[in-house]
Amino acid sequence: MKKRALLALGAWTLALFSGQTALAQSWPSKPIRLVVPFTPGGSTDILARTIGQKLSEAWGQPVLIDNVPGAGGSIGADKVAKAAPDGYTLLMGHIGTLAVTPSIYPHLPYDPVKSFAPVAWVARVPNVLVVHPSVPAHSVKELVALARQQPGRLNFGSGGNGSAAHIATEYLKLQSQTFMVHVPYRGTAPAVNDLIAGQLQLMFTGAPAVMPFVKSGQLRALAVSSPKRLPGLPDLPTVAESGLPALAGFEADQWYGVVAPAGTPREVVAKLNAQINASLNSPEIRARLLAEGAEATPNPPEVFGQLIVREIARWQPVVKAGRVRPE
């Protein structure tokens, strides 16, 4: 009886494995939906469209970008968490959606670790601290001095409460002991537009969303959030180089990566990971990301999963200190 049960279990396991292998071999056989949990025009959207185009070219299937903004990215993330785990619905995840939002929304309808299968760490994107040209500060040190002289007079924008831009600036405020007023928007693009128009004084956000305006002179860049200078912007100092002891070791980069619903077959995840990494390793994509101030980060799915867990723990005290609340 025991032998028969073991044989039956072995046959079931073999059938399941064969079925998953067959699925992976035939996948994708229809369009893939890549959900971006923010409005078009921001860093998440730009990276999603770049990766989506390469996947479409490789597999001959359309990759449809679906922008689902709201609630710090949690609405779009929840849509993917509840989708069928077949590899045809993916999320362009990001530090805010996967690592910061859990500390802001105590009753999220999804778990950033348990509800998703990590697929690929796509890119690391340093935040760039930019100001409107009318702001009389040409360095982080001068900006901090101005904020201390005029507490509450400087307004900073972000793509929403709890967004990566918001948290990065809260971290800057916490470390420099300054008070600046947060003005949340429904997406990065409208916040950048108001900064260019002079409705805001500063913003700390992903390089891809603001570098074109820095190059055109519409905005002034003061520093980057990364531990080292960007190869594409070697003259732009890091925040840590400001000369302020309180900001020594400052790091607040954004990161982006693709996740799938939990339960997505490992073979499909592996196929996705291999193709995304191949795209990231291509000279064309590396050059395009570098031009946008981003760094490609091809890694196994497990490495991306470990990053998510570490970052949830890292940003929790910043959210608490900044008293960041849901929208």
From TrEMBL:
- Superkingdom of source: Bacteria
The signal sequence is: 1-24
Q: What Pfam families does this protein map onto?
A: TctC
Q: What name does the UniProt record give this protein?
A: Tripartite tricarboxylate transporter substrate binding protein
UniProt cross-references to InterPro entries, sorted A to Z: BUG, Bug_dom1
Protein family membership: Belongs to the UPF0065 (bug) family.
Q: In which organism is this protein found?
A: Variovorax terrae
Q: Which UniProt keywords apply?
A: Signal
